[in-house]
Design a protein that fits this description.
- By secondary structure, the chain is α/β, with parallel strands linked by helices.
- The chain has a single domain, classed as 3-Layer(aba) Sandwich (Rossmann fold), CATH 3.40.50.
- The protein has 9 helices and 7 strands.
- Strands 3-2-1-4-5-6-7 form a 7-stranded parallel sheet, sandwiched between helices.
- Helix 1 links the parallel strand 1 and strand 2.
- Helix 1 runs parallel beside helix 2.
Length: 264
Amino acid sequence: MSHQEPDVKIERTVLITGASGAIGGALAKAYAGPATRLLLHGRRVEALETLAETCREKGAQVECHAVPLTDDALLRGWLEALAARCLPDIVIANAGQNHHVPGPGELEPWEQVSDLLAINLRAPMAMANILTPPMVRRGSGQFVLISSLAAWHGLPTTPGYSASKAGLKAFGEGLRGHLAPHGIGVTVVMPGYVSSPMCAAMPGPKPWEWPPEKAARVIQAGIARNRARISFPFPLNFGCWWLAVLPAGLSQRLLRLMGYGSHP
């Protein structure tokens, strides 16, 4: 689905997946403005169209898309068509899922884990794989990968989610070093708790929870500076970093003390 806009001079094209979610929607509004084309992707069509109208009122040219991110052929066809017509300057891979263990001694159902890995990790990697060649030919572009503070050390209540975000963090770090000589930036974003239905459904404490608008401002500012990593909020990001630095056994004891070690 798309929306035709009158011809205007476009200075910046931004692609955001997961735009119908809290962080994605806040980022769309933050980037909306004259001379900006927003390519908004999301599963919740009505919410996406409402968001698009808000962004258009701010002067942006907006297109809405709902191509399945986990269908390789459809994803490639969609992105290659976009690249030929309006290659994005910034690609924000924000679409994501979260699941948690259902009970003591149980793991997340494999079907859920498989779907989660497809959305959280495989889809962003596929997007980079498809869009990197035209960006390299142009000599500019930026990939923004939305990871999580859970990437520093796996949370006992969400091992599958933690694994997907750790994988995305590692991929982004490697990709940044590989693409920097070609004029392409890569930024890994590691948020803590940002208010949303997905956040509310996560088990365990949620210290220093931020509204999505605040998160979007910090992310946008970091993207503008091509920062390698954007993590927030302090001091939660500092504490999670220490979980990766300390011996794993000690980190796991600390997580239990903080309320993350037992079934919700």
